[in-house]
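Worked example

This section walks through a single chain of length 167. The input is the sequence exactly as stored; nothing has been trimmed or padded.
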Amino acid sequence: MTTESLLTKPERAIRVAPSVLTGIGAFTAVGVYVLVSSVGLGLWTSLGPGPGMFPFAMGGVLVAMSALWLVQELRRPSEKADGIDRGVVISVVVSLVVLASVMDLLGFQLSMFLFLLYHLKLRGRRTWVASLIIALAGSVGAFYAFNYGLNVALPVSAFTPLNLIGL
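Given that input, the structure is written out below as tokens.
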């Protein structure tokens, strides 16, 4: 034993904030739920991957990322946050409720474009050009990826003029 080891104080035990542990537990629980429920959809068919394969993979990724998050927090706990910005939380929740309520009326492309534009330009303070490009790519790109790439129908507009132009 050296003099230095006697004079130094032992390191404090690593303490992960309870709110962080709650978040990790919630993400793990959602991942396990998705894993278990996707097995009932069927992971494989005679033609290839079944309808439960993608949710099963995403549930596995969520559980793995939760485990990595826990390891990261145990190695170096995150610093205590100053607090929650309630305005941000309220604006996100309200915008999601508005998005869900107008999706069937305006269709996926237009409602998602407006949702993304709001969050990019007004909440994120991006430039108009960047906001428009990302919102357009995100809304139209996701629509075509799901409708034609994955064969999952997303809602189209209930208004005939919008529906006629492909929205």
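What to look for: The mean pLDDT is 86.
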